[in-house]
Amino acid sequence: MATTAQLFEEPFDADEYIERLAWRTPGGGSKGGAEAFDPKKLLEEFVNHIEELKQLDERIQRKVEKLEQQCHREAKEFAHKVQDLQRSNQVAFQHFQELDEHISYVATKVCHLGDQLEGVNTPRQRAVEAQRLMTYFNEFLDGELRSDVFNNPDKIKEAADIIQKLHLIAQELPFDRFSDVKAKIASKYHDLERQLIQEFTAAQRRGEIGRMREVAAVLLHFKVCWEIHVFWYIAILCQRVNKQVGEVFCSPETVMAKLIQSIFENKIQAHVKEKLEETRHSDVEQYLKNLYDLYSRTTALAAKLTDFNLGSDKHTFLSKLIKNIFSCYLESYIDMERQYLQNRSGLILQRYYDSKNHQKRAVGTGSIQELKERIRQRTNLPLGPSIDTHGETFLSQEVVVNLLQETRHAFERCNKLSDPADLPKNAFSIFLLLVEYLCVDHIDYALEIGLSAIPSADGKNANLYFLDVVQQANTIFHLFDKQFNDNLMPLISSSPKLTECLHKKKEVIEQMEVKLDTGIDRTLNCMVGQMKHILVTEQKKTDFKPEDENNVMIHEKILKQVERVRRSMDGKNVDTVLTELGVRFHRLIHEHLQQFSYSSMGGMLAICDVAEYRRSAKDFRVPLVLQLFDTLHALCNLLVVAPDNLKQVCSGEQLTNLDKNLLHAFVQLRVDYRSARLGRHFS
């Protein structure tokens, strides 16, 4: 029988090897056979075979020595290479420091040069501006305005800036020498002022707020008084007339009251009616804006008019005038506000879903849906087939901002236009619409879709899509809560409606938190299910031979999952979710390890694996999770420790407080449990 290294591959049995050698030797069989048993031949065969084994051993030993020499030689070469690289790195680092110092030096020079250029450029710009003004001044001096800026209506803003500066310069010039040019500049000054006032008035009539703001910014630089708005004009008119009335009439308060009453019942009422009636039935949004604006301006005017002597009860007098003008509009205000908010909110949502080419799924109601919800909360099982959302959360911050903005405007109008006794009730009705369209129709719907998209926990891939839903939902909750505190609370804080609002808010948030918790729990199941799939497909129960790639794969998955959780959660929720994930990860590894039997080598491999898992546990940055894996690592030491040292290891710091049955269960996984009678240590 040829003697080669292949004969000694595992599993090797010495008795079987000798027996096969004896049988193949002529006359070596124990029962004779074709030839009688010949001990001399058998001895000779054994001696020869032993000699062959010695030769084989020498060959293997020479090969081992050769490989060791080669290994030492390559190690030295590698060490030299590392030293060369370190020297190169040191040189590169020195070059980098020199370059950094040079860059800092150049940057300092550039900053200094920039300061010098700025110091030169500022006087230069002033000189250029002075030259430009002198050129325009010469045109007025010659009596012919040739520049395009004074003849082009589109450049009226630039012309106003120039004429305002020239007007200031002209005031400093002596009258006798420059009277003509001063008159021309003043004439152009007033001409441009008049054009700007006309432009402002036209923009106000068209409702172009942006254009009005631009023109007003230019007009502020002109000193003369300008009246362009009916309410502001009325205040100025009353201020002018008040002094004359006091000098002429013996009962000036009665005359002023009659004047103001006439202004309210004629001018203001006609103006209000014209502005509101033209939009009341055609454009509800503009109608509500106009009503809020006109009512605000009227009340502001009334506040200014209280400075005049209008009799002993002037506040009641002015309130009645305002009520006579706006009562017919305020009676139906809240109904129109709610109707507009319903239509506008529904339109915002519908446009969003249309942009996603999404047809909203009907969310079931009634006893069947309630039963499904209870089953899902208690069992955490997916009810119905999983749907593919292609990564779309169906939550939009743009939609949320639009809904909150519309509601904020509604709260502002409600505060101004509602009767004080009806204000809490009206504000609560607006809040209910916000809950309906934002919380129920948008957020809750997205949560239902998100729950339906979570696959079962036995899948190969962990679908972390629901964490995106959680992240966006948290952001929306913060915006919702901010509007509740900033816009709603001041309107209801001193009324019984406060309790109803707080209860409704708590109820809505708790319902959503239940669905969020359910989705997070099922997502964690998917994460653990993916790791379980890796372990089950990579390791066999017959022997413990884990592959390094398996450990790396799990470590990468855990790292990605932990980072995803950190991005999706905030505050204490991060530690809560990571703790739950870490506990489930530990339970999976613990149960997986108990499926195998361990030799000493297998125990060492298990310890190495758990050390890798413990490294993954550090990414959680949760003390409990790291403690669990430290304990599991200590338990794995029971698989390799010498039988006589079992009691000492079990009484160690990390294992002394554990249940004896748990320790015994780990010791039972050893292949020498029965032969070494290890159970006696736990009896």
From TrEMBL:
The record's keywords, sorted A to Z, are: Coiled coil, Exocytosis, Transport
Q: Which residues form the Exocyst complex component Sec10-like alpha-helical bundle domain?
A: 158-223, 232-681
Exocyst complex component Sec10 N-terminal domain: residues covered: 39-148
Key word Coiled coil present in the record? yes
Provide a GO biological process annotation.
exocytosis
**Coiled coil located at which positions?**
43-77
- Keyword Transport in record: yes
Question: What are the annotated GO cellular component locations?
Answer: exocyst
Out of the domains of life, which is the source? Eukaryota
Tell me the protein family, please: Belongs to the SEC10 family.
What is this protein identified as? Exocyst complex component 5
